[in-house]
Amino acid sequence: MQTRLSLFGILAGLLVAASLALPARLAGADAPAAAPTPPPKPKKALYTLTITDRIHLDVVGEGDLSATQRIDGHGNVNLVYIGEVHLAGLNITQAQDAVQNAYIEQKYLRHPQVTISVEEYAPRTVSIQGAVKNPGRFELPTESTLSVVELVTKAGGFTDIGKGSDVRITHASGTKSVQHVDVQAIITGKSKIKPDDDSLLLQPGDIVYVPEKLI
């Protein structure tokens, strides 16, 4: 009798264990597989406003403040009630902030919401001269950037006598300045500077010159 009871207890225990384990197995089988994590989207470069860009400016709820203007030779626009605001060299977001701050500082609006769009882009070219295979003038992309490394590539690369270790960029915006860049080291991966570093980006009117090696 005791043997039968013990066998009965063992069988009952096995059935209970199986019933508890079954839902877990089924749940695992029915659960959808975890979706793969999508790769991060590339960061889109913001357009930088420049002289002679034609822009449209709106202030939400203030229709009389809307304006369409060209950025003048000093990089400014002349806005109703607040006068000149410098926008050249700023991206769209920065330009919107600059106009909003101007209205606040002039105590004309407390919480302005400004939107700016480009209606006509200024001519955007850079030139490369010297010891490259295809010197000349190149268009800058409208909604993205161009680095000196990319420009050298567009120009066909260095000639056999091109001194890629001392590429010179004359910046046209603001006070003219000359930047020296070891493009050859960047291309070969021997430089700490990466090809997409912001310090290598070109602006409209910049002139790139590749000197010849001393023989």
Model regions low in confidence, pLDDT < 50 over at least 5 residues: 20-31, 37-45
The strands making up the biggest β-sheet line up spatially as 7-6-10-8-9
| Overall pLDDT level | 82
Rg: 32 Å
Secondary-structure element pattern, one letter each: HEEEEHEEEHEEHE
- So how many helices? 4
Give the strand content.
Answer: 15-25%
Structure description:
The chain has 215 residues and is α+β, with helices and mostly antiparallel strands. The protein contains four helices and ten strands, in the order H-E-E-E-E-H-E-E-E-H-E-E-H-E. Strand 3 and strand 4 form a beta hairpin. It is elongated. The protein starts with a helix and ends in a 5-residue tail after the last strand. 21% of the residues are buried.
Task: Briefly characterize the structure.
This protein has 215 residues and is of the alpha+beta class. Helix content is 26%, strand content 23%. The longest helix has 29 residues, at 2-30.
